Amino acid sequence: MTEANITASLLVPTYKEHQIEAGRLLFTRPVTFMLGVAKLEQLPAEDKVEICFAGRSNVGKSSLINALCSRKDMARTSNTPGRTQQLNFFDLDGAFNLVDLPGYGFAQAPKDVVRSWQGLIRHYLRGRVKLRRVFVLIDSRHGFKGADLEMMKMLDETAVSYQVVLTKADKLKKGQMEKRIAEVVAALKKHPAALNQIFATSSEKNTGISELRAEIASLL
């Protein structure tokens, strides 16, 4: 098998029609903002499955969440890194809680605030029994940065299963994207909690959104 074929096989496989439909129907259900959590004692009761999204500041996390839920402003988008400063919980009609983690990396926030976020995130990841999957968003134009590797190390240490989602896939040409995918897949081999199948998405072009919805539906 050629390197290109190996790379292709490690992408999330094509979903069957009924799986795509299940994902579509899931995300047509009402989504409501529950609360923003800045302290451990504010965490809601674990009464349903939780699906979590993490990523560097300005990676396109809010745009991806909005695209998944077919909303324009459910998760706030901004060109200012570090806009999300809490763990934001959204209830998808009782089916599961979608959790939006604070953007990490070059967030424009005081160091003590960033340390506080990191402590809160670590405790959240370590203690949530209902946390089914963390999707780690990586800007396809840049690949892994130091902050991404730090987050992945934290996920490995807390033994939380996670899956990489490449964002802004429309910004790369086909050959560039194949190269980026190969780099990501190779790097994931060093991370025991990482799943080796990844998504390539574009919130602008709606690329990979149906497949990501189908994957989330399968986790429930």
From TrEMBL:
Domain of life, per lineage: Bacteria
Keyword rRNA-binding: no
SUPFAM superfamilies on file: P-loop containing nucleoside triphosphate hydrolases (SSF52540)
Occurrences of domain EngB-type G (ranges): 47-220
Keywords: Cell cycle, Cell division, GTP-binding, Magnesium, Metal-binding, Nucleotide-binding, Septation
Cofactor: Mg(2+)
Keyword Magnesium part of the UniProt annotation: yes
GO MF entries: GTP binding; metal ion binding
Any one biological process term the GO annotation gives: division septum assembly
An annotated GO cellular component: cytosol
Family label: Belongs to the TRAFAC class TrmE-Era-EngA-EngB-Septin-like GTPase superfamily. EngB GTPase family.
Function of the protein: Necessary for normal cell division and for the maintenance of normal septation.
Name of the protein: Probable GTP-binding protein EngB
Species this chain originates from: Thalassospira profundimaris
